[in-house]
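Help needed: design a sequence for this.
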């Protein structure tokens, strides 16, 4: 059995570029940066950044180019693909990219305080002009829940 599955959670390094193939298919490309932390031999905390090229096809490419912006948080689920091509000078090139099967957008850059802090995007300031999201209070009385209504 074989499996080619990738999950990347990181920040966009550039705005998505939307193009159309000669057959009219939409394709969008963008970069995502991820980082990891480790301790070196001297015990100092170090950070390593990896850069990933993402390719998105079809309607999802159009939506991604409309809503994703540089610096925004995104979760990409897809597969690794390596392709080769030849440039105008005849040099061969090879690149590995992630072909997206599903994208989940992170909180918007101007979103509520709770959303930003829970995803680690940044801290809101008190004089931030972004409107605060009001979450409704949900009250459930135990009398309203009946064991026969639970589906499992």
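Sure. Designed sequence:
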């Amino acid at each position: 059995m074989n499996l080619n599955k990738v999950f990347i959670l990181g920040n966009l390094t550039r705005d998505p570029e939307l193009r159309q193939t000669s057959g009219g298919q939409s394709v969008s490309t963008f970069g995502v940066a991820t980082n990891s932390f480790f301790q070196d031999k001297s015990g100092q905390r170090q950070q390593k950044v990896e850069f990933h090229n993402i390719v998105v096809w079809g309607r999802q490419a159009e939506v991604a180019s409309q809503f994703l912006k540089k610096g925004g948080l995104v979760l990409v689920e897809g597969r690794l693909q390596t392709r080769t091509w030849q440039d105008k000078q005849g040099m061969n090139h090879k690149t590995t990219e992630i072909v997206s099967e599903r994208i989940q957008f992170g909180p918007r850059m101007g979103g509520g305080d709770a959303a930003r802090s829970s995803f680690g995007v940044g801290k809101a300031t008190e004089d931030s002009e972004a409107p605060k999201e009001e979450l409704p209070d949900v009250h459930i009385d135990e009398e309203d829940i009946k064991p026969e209504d639970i589906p499992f």
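The longest strand covers residues 26-39.
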